[in-house]
Amino acid sequence: MKRIACILAPLVFGACNVGPTYERPKLVHAPSGAFKENTQGSEDAQEGGWRQASPSDEKIRGKWWEIFGEPELSTLEERLVLDNQNIKQSFENYMAARAAMRAATAQLYPQIGVGASATETGKSSGLTSLFALPLTVTWEPDLFSKIRNTIKQAANNAQLSSATLANVALSEQVSLAQIYFQLRGQDALLDLYAGTIANYKESLRLVQVLARTGIDSEQEVAQAEVTLHTAEANMSAIVTTRSQFEHAIALLVGEVAGSFSLAPRPIEVHVPAVPIAVPSRLLERRPDIAAAERSMAAANALIGVGKAAYYPDISLSAGIGTQADNLSKLFSTGANYWSLGGSASEKIIDFGGRRATVAQYEAQYRATVAAYRQTALNAFKEVEDYLVASRQLFEQAQRQKRAVESAERYEKLANIRYKTGVDTYLNVITAQTNLLSSRQALVSVATNQMTTAVHLVGSVGGGWSTEKLPTEGDVSRGAPSLP
Predict the structure, then answer these.
(1) What is the DSSP letter of 51?
(2) Which top CATH class is 18-109+162-310+353-476?
(3) Residue 268, number of CB atoms within 10 A of its CB
(4) Tens digits of residue pLDDT in 282-292
(5) Which of 7, 115, 336, 453 has the most neighbouring CB atoms within 10 Å?
(6) Per-domain residue ranges for the chain?
(7) Which residues contact 272 (CB under 8 A, 6 or more apart)?
(8) Rounded to an integer, what distance in angstroms lies between the CA atom of residue 139 and that of residue 153?
């Protein structure tokens, strides 16, 4: 009865949508009112100000990288938006999705065609010629919303492509900022090693002088040389790593690696307070979640396309034109003709083909629901991960600074005891090694603090929100630009 009603209703009231109504599925577990890791930490950490901005604070606006206060990074990010090839590829994919939606919309309207023909038929009585110039109009009324569901699916796919473009742009921007701070961390290590090697050379000269006077032996000279040459070898490895980071930045901004360079400058740690909204708002600020949600909407519309196959295909046609057996008579009044027609067809037996197709589309929809929920869960996880990392790095930095201070005092005392003859040079080497290791660790923590802040910004969506997602109407008009 339902099927019969849907066949008759369009003839009286208009199109009947046989597909399911789309409603965004709920998450299996509702998010809590706050991120757990934003409220944890030792008393020192809480008082030290590691915590990110509270939900009541303003969200990130516009160009999120500007919160780091790095003009050079901002310049690079602007270049990336214009010249990054991954972003351009995603943009063209979005343009293709928009065109597909317009192509689907064209199916709603009559198709008009014109043609010309000339035929000659031979019979025993002689040759017969026929010339024709027809104009035809055909239209398939969308009585069961097959075309409208196809348009909706195409529009949802275009929105999905738009969200994917935003996600690719955010990912590339995050990668650039992360690599930029890693490069600056290598600059800090190069600066550290330059000063350390200078000190090691001075120590070697002192040991060589003492060895010549008989106070020290060649063993102490060899120990000092090992320490110096090891530091020089490590510095060469740092140069290699820095160059690779520089090449990676060149790739991101669309430039040939050999023609790109950044002047050395040690990292400066200015960790910004990242505005963290309540978890439920994260669903509106992550482009990957928006893409997963639009994928569900497209899959839901496809079910309607599949169900429309159960109903008749109806086609209307009309034509006007001229037809004559002589080319000179083709445009005479008596050669004109017109025609009207219609047809309807429906499969009676398809051995379960349509039912299987609908079952396939329904399973694909359920798969997109699972993908959406997994994407949301992963988003919550990422924010918690970077929040705990941010807190622990803050605490680690405080402790590492104290470790450096102790190592500096130890190295100073070891040098005094060696120069006064109380201890051997081996104690100096141990102290120097400890000091270099402590300072390296401090640079590593500082670099991790900045890159973790970058990832935290990315995990909350940067400055994006679903407000920037084009509507179904928007994707069919206007000229979009790169994000």
Answers:
(1) S
(2) mainly alpha
(3) 13
(4) 899 999 999 99
(5) 453
(6) 18-109+162-310+353-476
(7) 67, 68, 69, 453
(8) 21
